[in-house]
Amino acid sequence: xxxxxxxxxxxxxxxxxxxxxxxxxxxxxxxxxxxxxxxxxxxxxxxxxxxxxxxxxxxxxxxxxxxxxxxxxxxxxxxxxxxxxxxxxxxxxxxxxxxxxxxxxxxxxxxxxxxxxxxxxxxxxxxxxxxxxxxxxxxxxxxxxxxxxxxxxxxxxxxxxxxxxxxxxxxxxxxxxxxxxxxxxxxxxxxxxxxxxxxxxxxxxxxxxxxxxxxxxxxxxxxxxxxxxxxxxxxxxxxxxxxxxxxxxxxxxxxxxxxxxxxxxxxxxxxxxxxxxxxxxxxxxxxxxxxxxxxxxxxxxxxxxxxxxxxxxxxxxxxxxxxxxxxxxxxxxxxxxxxxxxxxxxxxxxxxxxxxxxxxxxxxxxxxxxxxxxxxxxxxxxxxxxxxxxxxxxxxxxxxxxxxxxxxxxxxxxxxxxxxxxxxxxxxxxxxxxxxxxxxxxxxxxxxxxxxxxxxxxxxxxxxxxxxxxxxxxxxxxxxxxxxxxxxxxxxxxxxxxxxxxxxxxxxxxxxxxxxxxxxxxxxxxxxxxxxxxxxxxxxxxxxxxxxxxxxxxxxxxxxxxxxxxxxxxxxxxxxxxxxxxxxxxxxxxxxxxxxxxxxxxxxxxxxxxxxxxxxxxxxxxxxxxxxxxxxxxxxxxxxxxxxxxxxxxxxxxxxxxxxxxxxxxxxxxxxxxxxxxxxxxxxxxxxxxxxxxxxxxxxxxxxxxxxxxxxxxxxxxxxxxxxxxxxxxxxxxxxxxxxxxxxxxxxxxxxxxxxxxxxxxxxxxxxxxxxxxxxxxxxxxxxxxxxxxxxxxxxxxxxxxxxxxxx
Length: 808
Ligand code: MIG
Known about the structure:
This protein is an alpha+beta fold.
């Protein structure tokens, strides 16, 4: 038996023998006895495999404006196989569309599985398996309904990552997941097969070689990483086309860059969006919101963003304000702006069925809502009661929704938070046959469900962009592949449980591996009541996640930084201030990410792929490539084991002690200490702490330097712009290169400005040299006096300095 494409009612559909092939520019088309397929060379490392199994090719919802850079391609036909050579890969296509992929040395990277599709049998306690049917029937049902199923050979020593923010652990080997955006109010547990997002992309790592597969199918899809059978892994779909991309590494970083080359990277956000954010369901009325705002300033805890959850609206009608609770919202937003706050409001998709409410009236008049088969607007129930669902798959509707953003942003709202867009529904799930109009083509809920939140985010992004001409800040709960171009994501309704803090790390790392660089969890937990210790540990993780937002549910105990006791408050202050000091470092990561797709919070394997010890580490992550964070995620723990990867030495951020890589160490971590390590040779740019972004004019950049203990050279590129507009896209930014070298008893630092276009330059640089005190110190050849006599040697130079020599 062979790779199977199971068409409904037809078991074991097979393509049959190759009859004919032809190459036209970068596409090789192959005709089989029973079907046709194409192999499309996007780049030498990215190849699309396609067959129109149920429909003609449709515009991808994830891949927009695809740039092709195929390079040189040659095609051959040997022993009944079509062989396609790119500049990086050899692809062989045999009868039945069996695909094998090799590198140019002939090493096999990925192969279709040649054996039977044979899931394990779920045994019950009785002979006829009734219990099995009751308890574990799902797998059987899934198999029946899968129309397309691809099996790939699974080799021992394989690891799998990605699929967005699935619960459980970092490595997905042995697990099975379904892609069907789901709002499940139960506490997220490891056994969940669905979540809010559907990101049908994964990275496979085998014997230090990484590749990725992106199955671009928005219908319900299933990914099984060797759970149903240890000999293969598979991905399958209930409908749509066979349409997947193979993305070669060999590094996992290249795979992510390749995937985001296809689906897009997260655009550089406004600087303030990387600040601390405070939310809750809900800050209302106005007086309560103001109290929160004042408290942050009074308590000297930095904060940039405050949220308005659903209760700011008039009866949950989107794009309205409750006049009782917020009688003059424009004035309020203005006042908060004066205090340095940006206010983000929630917007759900469900539009209240309510004659006379203008959003509803407009939508109804123009047929903007999804309908039933007879064209009658489909009604379900969400927060406003009976509600209708805008058809975001339709460009005209997206345009209308985009225009509506003005109602918020023109009055001073700084960003929009999209919730409930799986879409959620209180009166049972939307039926499969709810109709959508995908730009003129009628289709149903089965195809649009997983991209509903994606299209809503796109509309929101575009609306805010047009209205403000600034980098839009959109947060969404539901997503598909590619949503990262439009929105920041959070992992939805977690709970104030240690388990959820622990699990947030692999969830965020896998989101990062799936192209979502700008992500976070509700710090402190959404449901259930948080504790002093849990919040103290959670804020230590939050300080290093791109979206740093404390949020909690209605009726939960207060969870603001000061809501417990003085100790908890001071730990919050300490880590929120650290976050603000590190802002230029995080901003540099996001700037770099816009080109490379590499996330802020990353699993160790991304930077240390040669060290197999890190492939399964769940409770440590890299923040960019210079900082390793090993947070405490267990209640009561005051020390923990930390694995420091092979390849360089590591410096304890707090004690400045130096450690060799490739070992486990034990770090004491009392409640106020989050274990943090800086890579030897690391250069970390820092700002002074501020209450909010823009409070202080930053005229000096601090560079926190972790010199090599022996020989070494490192380079750090720092980026500077206005922090909010799109002017950087026309070149209005500065770039600084800092090069650190050590040989023997000499340390040399070179500063060069590789781009000087943005007007507000730094006046000076302050260097902190950790762990070393020189005997002699020169700036551009001039000897300078060594002033400080404490352990930490620091000095300031003007912005014209080019070379610093330290002899010791
Ligand atoms: O049915 O708007 O995940 O963050 O606070 C709950 C109220 C609706 C779910 C979101 C949560 C938000 C809440 N929402």
